[in-house]
């Protein structure tokens, strides 16, 4: 009888250990193979002139890439409020030109910002220096990166690629590039990258892109055409009235559907398996 009890206790303990191991393995599998269960929304704010602002929404998190011109800021705030955004978890300033950072000070006064990512830049840009002073005054951390880094917000994996060098002749070539992954969907934001920075982006091992925020407002560029050929985007957003001829032809050759943002918002929704534009009436 004692032997039977010992065997029973042993079997119960073994079963408990097996159950614990199974639970741990199941948890590990779910973490490694997490499925996107929430839709994500990607907004490209309509601006009065050639300028950039993108809003990325996933769950209760919000990432903003650039803030347009100063005159665009009230509309950007309206978009944030319409989408019930209470704070910006991360503000990415791709480079220090006013058509990308002009609305930042206004937004800082209207909505909390947790973190700012920006390129290393020591050139003379008074508006940028003023903005950095405001951020320091508000004790909002500003991070510059010597190498690419991965950030996760909601169901979005966001990899930020800084420029390879510390000094460029053109401020546009300081542009941070941003790759966003939502399940199987990829978006790529190229800032205002010009010849030198585009050459760096062409060296990246990037996946096929579903939505491409076109470099430098769709201005003509041989390397800009090469990047389109490499990315093969299904959709492209041009932050201008329209892309210039060479870029427009490159999109046409690739079969890319192109949207522009002067005086109109462009919105995409992703479920992690597909992405589609949402057209306003």
What can you tell me about this protein's structure?
Keywords: Membrane, Transmembrane, Transmembrane helix. InterPro entries: ComA-like_MBL (IPR035681), Competence_DNA_uptake (IPR052159), Metallo-B-lactamas (IPR001279), RibonucZ/Hydroxyglut_hydro (IPR036866). This is MBL fold metallo-hydrolase. Residues 50-241 form the Metallo-beta-lactamase domain. The protein is of the alpha/beta class and 281 residues long. The protein folds into 2 domains: 1-33; 35-265, Metallo-beta-lactamase, Chain A (4-Layer Sandwich). It is 32% helix and 23% strand. The chain contains 8 helices and 15 strands. It has helices at 2-32, 73-82, 98-101, 104-110, 126-137, 195-201, 222-231, 245-254; strands at residues 40-44, 54-58, 61-65, 90-92, 116-117, 142-143, 149-153, 156-161, 177-182, 185-189, 211-213, 235-238, 257-260, 266-270, 275-278. A hairpin with a 2-residue loop joins β9 and β10 (185-189). The longest helix has 31 residues, at 2-32. Mean pLDDT is 90; it is low at 6-12 and 20-33.
């Amino acid at each position: 009888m004692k032997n039977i009890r010992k065997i029973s206790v042993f079997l119960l303990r073994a079963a408990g250990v097996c159950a614990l191991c199974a639970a741990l393995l199941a948890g590990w599998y779910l973490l490694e193979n997490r499925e996107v269960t929430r839709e994500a929304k990607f907004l490209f704010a309509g601006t009065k002139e050639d300028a950039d602002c993108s809003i990325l929404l996933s769950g209760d998190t919000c990432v903003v890439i650039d803030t347009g011109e100063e005159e665009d800021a009230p509309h950007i705030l309206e978009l944030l409020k319409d989408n019930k955004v209470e704070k910006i978890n991360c503000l990415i300033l791709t480079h220090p030109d006013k058509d990308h950072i002009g609305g930042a000070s206004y937004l800082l006064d209207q909505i909390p910002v947790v973190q700012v990512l920006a390129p290393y830049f020591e050139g003379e840009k008074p508006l940028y220096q003023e903005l950095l002073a405001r951020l320091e005054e508000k004790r909002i951390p500003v991070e510059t990166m010597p190498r690419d880094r991965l950030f996760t917000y909601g169901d979005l994996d966001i990899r930020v690629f800084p420029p390879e060098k510390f000094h460029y002749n053109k401020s546009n070539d300081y542009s941070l590039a941003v790759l966003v992954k939502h399940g199987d969907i990829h978006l790529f934001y190229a800032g205002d990258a010009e010849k030198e920075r585009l050459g760096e982006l062409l060296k990246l091992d990037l996946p096929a892109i579903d939505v491409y925020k076109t470099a430098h407002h769709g201005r003509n560029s041989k390397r800009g055409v090469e990047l389109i050929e490499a990315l093969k985007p299904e959709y492209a957003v041009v932050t201008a009235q329209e892309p210039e001829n060479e870029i427009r032809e490159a999109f046409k050759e690739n079969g890319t559907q192109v949207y522009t943002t002067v005086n109109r918002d462009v919105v995409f929704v992703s479920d992690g398996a597909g992405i589609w534009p949402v057209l306003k009436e």
